Amino acid sequence: MSEQDTHAFTKKYGPWAVIAGASHGVGAALADQVAAKGLNCVLVARREDALIDLKNQLVDRYGVEVLVVTLDLTLDDAADRLVAAVADREVGLLIYNAGGDPYITRFLDTPVEDWSKLLHLNTRTIMRCCHAFGGRMVARGAGGVLLVGSQAALGGVRKLAMYAATKSFAMTLGEGLWAEWKGQGVDVLNLLIGTVDTPTMRDAMVRQGIAGALTMQLAKAEDIAAIALRELPNGPTLIHPDDLAESPTGSHSGQARREHVLRISAESALFIGD
User: Fold this and answer.
1) Residue 220: how many CA atoms within 13 Å on its side-chain side?
2) Which H/E stretch holds residue 269?
3) Residue 168: how many CB atoms within 10 A of its CB?
4) Alpha carbon distance 215, 200 (integer Å)
């Protein structure tokens, strides 16, 4: 990215980025690439040690400011705690990368209390974060929201029923916010990814007894992060890798979803107003 492009990115999405789920994998890669573009970072996750290590790396490499917020995003008041920690910092980019399924079981094989935590993580906390930080961005007329989701959002999946349902909520919310905010200077992108090479994914594959769990070729987190930041202005939904120009499938399902959102929004305006 040229110096001019970096300046434009910082002007649109800076000076601060909030990255929820930043301790490893795609979240850590996004934090690194955002910081490389000059944005200060609020790193959010439960693992304080991992966040502090990442903070030190970002400060050393890029000279940005970094705030560490150790927080369990499944808590009822998680969003309120995060907003309080951020205080009056001007947030121009919200990245919500939390929300993986730690169970990967049939619905009845996990207690309902645990499913309730996943439900809260992927619905209420996202909603409240989008409302709080998105409101600030709309008020200033610039910013971006990146919701890192999963292809599971596109329909029900065996052993991922609750995960798929909650990811579908986030996707649909993101598409609606894109339709509302696209004319107000705020970009919204759902990034729906498949299997990515992260410690969490590898551990899950090992637990499930998947052959080649440690050697199978998977998409790299840093590549996913680069695509997400590049495509942020092109919401509302990008399905990786299907929607990439170089994809052999060339399905471009995300473009179809964009056209659907635009069409339904226009049709519904006749009954609910513009």
Assistant:
1) 3
2) helix 253-272
3) 19
4) 15
Residue 70's H or E segment, with its range, is strand 66-70
- Residues 6 or more apart whose CB falls under 8 angstroms from that of 115 comprise 103, 107, 162
Contact assessment for residue 191 and residue 147, using Cβ atoms and an 8 Å cutoff: yes
How far is 113 from 116, CA to CA, in rounded Å?
5
Task: State the pLDDT confidence band at 34, using cuts at 50, 70 and 90.
Answer: very high
* pLDDT, position 118: 97
pTM of the model: 0.91
DSSP for 17-36 reads: EEEES-SSHHHHHHHHHHHH
Identify the band that residue 43 occupies on the pLDDT scale cut at 50, 70 and 90: very high
- Positive or negative, the CA dihedral 182, 30, 44, 4 is negative
Q: Take residue 30 and report the two structure tokens written for it.
A: 């996004």
